[in-house]
Amino acid sequence: METETLDPAQAFMAKVSDRFKPVHELTARGTSSVQQFYSGATVFLTGGSGFLGKQLIEKLFRATKISKIYVLLRCKKGKSMEQRLVDMLKDPLYDTLREQQPEFADKIVAVSGDTSELKLGLSDKDWNTIADEVDIVFHLAATTRFDEELKLATFINIRGTREVLALGKACKKLRSFVYVSTAFSHARDEYIAGDVLEKFYESPISPENLIGVAESMDEERLNNITTSLIKGWPNTYTFTKAVAEELVRTMGKDLPLCVVRPSIVTCSIQEPSPGWVDLSCIYGASGYVYAVGLGVAHTAYGEHSNKLDFVPVDYVNNAILTAAWETTRTKSSAPEKDEIKIYTVSTATRKPITWRVVQDILANKARYYPTPKAVSYTFAWCTNIRLLYWIYAWLLHLIPAYIVDAVMVLFGKERRFGKLAQKLSKMTMALSHFLSHHWKFDDRNTVALFDSLSEDDRKIFNFDVTDIDWPEYILVWCLGLRKYFVKDGLNGTIYGRKKQTVLKIVTFIMMPLYFYGLFKIAYCVFYYLFVLFNLFFK
């Protein structure tokens, strides 16, 4: 009897998943030191609906016998916080957990609030309940938009952190508080190609002063002075995270607190399944890889030899969970110490990969697993020359998009491709700072933390970046994007290869014609402008 064979993409992901089965079996025992630390714990979590937060919730329930999680949620797009929680838990991320613990959602309590509001927008009742019951706080919430206006970024990333710290001080049974920052909080211009240590740096401005400015100053006026305020930082995100760390240093010195600084967080490497990625990542590195895989993006800006710094989301959360355990252990053994440890989770120092290698993997190995839903031949021209990038962007993205929009208008359809092309260019330029520069992130505290774990905990809560197989991980990332973004079920890979062959031939025929047509149009325009000039000014 002939058996149906797996699609090559499905076979590859199954092979990767099978390798991690022993770890899942070990996790199910629940006997390790870190697992026992969370047994019966009550957690308060901000950012629970985000990429990092959702995976953290999943890992907590699957790997530990946690008692309850309070998740701060706000009403959004007409949905109540309860409905948002229900929708969030429908994510395929929780499929394995649902099979193992069908009632896990009963232990999640959504509390109405907003990190941009005073007292987090919590009612007095919710504030007091959390203060009475919670013993572990994870503050993950932040606006990660690079182009966020400074007022909102200040309210969420700085004032919100102040309010969570105040709540932490009110918690009567607090054992551990983890603040999640970013490795790029102090990766400013003066440190490019230099060391960024696991320490607190001088804040560019007093947190309270910046909060006061944001609360009192007109938004338009604040926007006008933003460039001068954030000088040295590439965007409002990294700037406000730097200022927030000063709040953590000053307000948190009497708390059992630590800071975790991840670099660019990307898809899961193994948990709960390889390749999981959230739609909230669409405007970051994952969004760019997705656009290339669909044949929508064909150009990028970055330095070929630059070291990139991608970290799997499950590695970041494993570091967060173990950092909370270590913080409690350290405070218990030496309560007089007020040092706040910083843990950087980064790959560029101990497991570097260059932009050129990533491009090579995408252009060659990833091409073996194309999605059948690709709209054109998948290729990308990369340059570190800004002028050349914009020439590529106009030729390969913007002009074709405007031509298609013109055709759409003729047929009475809505124009949308021009806006999409503009968003792609905007996203590429937002990432360009990190694709064309690198920093040497010190991660000795993180390495020491990992080395202090038992053998079982090193497997269950692995964040040893040196064991990442980059070619395999990049492929897992691409297939994860197919599974969770494109949603093609990892089917049709063979058809996708044939389609790419056809699209390649079409591209090689049409591109010269397209460039010739643009040349002729430009020639005619300049010729008639020259003639008109002579007529009027002769």
Automatic annotation (TrEMBL):
In its UniProt entry, the species of origin is given as Spodoptera frugiperda
This one is known as: Fatty acyl-CoA reductase
Q: What gene is this protein translated from?
A: LOC118267780
- Which reactions does this protein catalyse? a long-chain fatty acyl-CoA + 2 NADPH + 2 H(+) = a long-chain primary fatty alcohol + 2 NADP(+) + CoA
TM spans, by residue?
387-411, 513-537
Which CDD domains does the UniProt entry name for this protein? Answer: FAR-N_SDR_e, FAR_C
Q: Does the keyword Ligase apply?
A: no
Provide the GO MF annotations for this entry: alcohol-forming long-chain fatty acyl-CoA reductase activity; alcohol-forming very long-chain fatty acyl-CoA reductase activity
Q: How does it sit in the membrane?
A: Multi-pass membrane protein
Protein family membership: Belongs to the fatty acyl-CoA reductase family.
Task: List the Pfam families hit by this protein, alphabetically.
Answer: NAD_binding_4, Sterile
